[in-house]
User: Fold this.
Amino acid sequence: MADLLKVEALTKSYSGLAADRPISILRQVSMELRAGESLAIMGRSGAGKSTLLHLLAGFERADAGDIRWEGKSLAAMSDADTDRLRNRRFGFVYQFHHLIEECSAIDNVSLPLRIASMKSREATERASMMLGRLGLANRLEHRPSALSGGERQRVAVARALVHQPACVLADEPTGNLDEQSALQVFGLFRELAQESGTALLLVTHDHALAKACDRLVVLENGLLR
Assistant:
């Protein structure tokens, strides 16, 4: 499989309490992700895992190094090009679902398709199909407040996958669920991603989820091991 993502010597620091002493978060991080592959990143809290995801998604800029998606460098992209890349090629799942509370499940899931200018009827049909695959066919019109924690997270997974992205970036996607619900949600997540050839880049503290991925790396002292 070809490299979907290639990262070389990525470095990131933040200002510390002393202006002349920046806090180093990532030091010369290099990694690759192949198309359709699942990769888990583990590490203690504060190790920089979420920072790494933010850099990979273009939400923040690295101090040094290079991030290439499908051969294209993020550093060379304008903000508009980066936004376009995120909308078309990425999906996102977080520990907390980040669903729009005023919208139904189906409206939340169809949102990425509408952003991509898909016709309303087609977007609704595809969102309905994805929610059905995740066992939520009878919850299409429910708002997030009317769903259980596991159901809300499945809606978030459906939203991340519905536009068949090249990669889903997932930051503790089951961290707010009990063990049984976490394994169930992740199992469905991985199955649907494999069907569409979507790569998964997963940050997690859950060893069971990490072991279910194709590869596992650990972020420690700013380095991937």
Observations:
- Helices lie at 49-57, 79-89, 105-115, 120-133, 149-161, 179-196, 207-211.
- The longest helix spans residues 179-196.
- The chain has one domain: 37-54+79-218.
